Batch of 2 targets.
Target 1
Amino acid sequence: MKFDEAYSGKVFIMSRPNYEEAQAVIYGMPMDYTVSFRPGSRFGPARIREVSIGLEEYSPYVKRHLEEVNYYDAGDILLPFGNPGKSLDLIEAYIEQLLADGKMPIGLGGEHLVTWPVLKAMHRKYSDMALIHIDAHADLREEYEGEVLSHATPVRKACELLGPENVYSFGIRSGMREEFEFGRTSGMTMECFEVAEPLKKHLPKLSGRPVYVTIDIDVLDPAFAPGTGTAEAGGISSKELLQAITMISESDLNIIGADLVEVAPIYDHSDQTAIAASKFIREILLGWVKR
């Protein structure tokens, strides 16, 4: 199945024209209806695609060229503006179709709540899956100002769905006291402030398992990624996130899908956030899509 009806007019660099032959599918989730501070991440997927034209097709990190990976950019899912419930249902149905067609989903956000319906669809196919969550924020609230559908809740929902022992969070440096208490006592793994070194320690525990990876761009310090809705000082560098992505590439994890969320281009007129995000997507394509 093709999703040409969702095509936004721009594609990620070297995207192939044939959906049926693709190993992986890039798709956008342009939703930012539940954000608690600054909106604008619904424009992230399009801008990540647009700036990807500046990338080299070769990665010296994994020594592969984009011509070696067959991927299709399906554009953005057409989501009803202002209706998070229906939008999440549409995303979930979209992922179900991708999985039925044997494609690896690589999502571009959008606010972080968009990861939740993806996880629901993935879990139906991979009941023993684990989640790697790389973010500045814990996202472990049960609700935000009375709203259970919030960009502050997806990882708590993931713990309830997958079991907290199957959720691994890295880079966390912001959240309520109760969220950090949950991280310490629930059985999940929560590593604060750093990503690469603690990830290296935990990767052997996930050996051979199906793993979904979600990356919030705000794990980076605002010096490296100012274009995000909820920037948080004290983050990691672009170099460290690239190291983490490469570690996963070199591991024996079975990466079943990934997303990168919360790029909000309006707050970064230099495009350094979108440019970094597009490079991370290149490395995900080259390192995580099965050879």
Note: The chain is about 30% helix and 20% strand.
Target 2
Amino acid sequence: MYHKQKKCLRFVLFLLPFLTLIFCSNDSIEGEEPIQSANLPWQQFHIHFLSNDCKAKKILLVLVHGSPGSSSDFKTYLKNKELQDKFCIFVPDRFGYGESANKESLPSIFKQGNALAQIIETYINKESYTFEKAIFVGHSYGGPIAIVMSMAKIPTFPRKIQTILLSSPSDPDLEELHWYNHLANIQIFQWFLPKSWIFSNEEMFTLKFDLEQLTTKLGKCNLDLLSVHGENDQLVPLENVYYFTKRKLNIKHRFQILKGENHFIPWTSFAEIKSILLAEGSK
């Protein structure tokens, strides 16, 4: 039964744009800033992103979508007046998704995190921005990518960096592959699947090893992490929020559990997540 629920939840991921409209419409007052859509080069490819008006903003807020997903998942955040007033909001399409180069995937949290860090560096330099603080937020698979971004040695990044994990996997022992992952890895079945599904499945094959490697790297870092997780998350178990405490890593880690909520808290708990972002941005 549990495996069937996980399979259904994976399918619901593809309905996120509709969930955004349903759950966020009554909680978000739209600001007047236009939403910019642009591309930046990365190696021989490009990365697409959305952003608000970032002039005169002192805090950079980066929102990283899960697997699969796209920058459009966070449009409600981009358009919210309170968030617009507080942050320069940068929302990329991860490599292989949305309008970014999508002919092949990059199934590694380290390659994706470092690529996005370099893209943001290009963005900051291109626009001649200076930020006092950066907050990297990752939902689901985007969580560990946000951690990698926080660890990147980018000269133009502010010294004060915080990472917020939303429904994020952290514990490699909780990661396991299922029969449908192996089925979707067979080429004949991939003919019937959208590329985003194939890329998402490929990311699941490397995630356990990546999280093990991330734990080793975190042992040498001093990060500020906040985990926010739904109490009833059946796709990424709640136990993930206890992992950093259990391993006793040299990081500052806090967690907040949203009662009665599931994996889709960026949309079902928009008001709560918005309040968390505003509060953390004021520290």
Note: Residues 1-14, 16-23 have pLDDT under 50 and may be disordered.
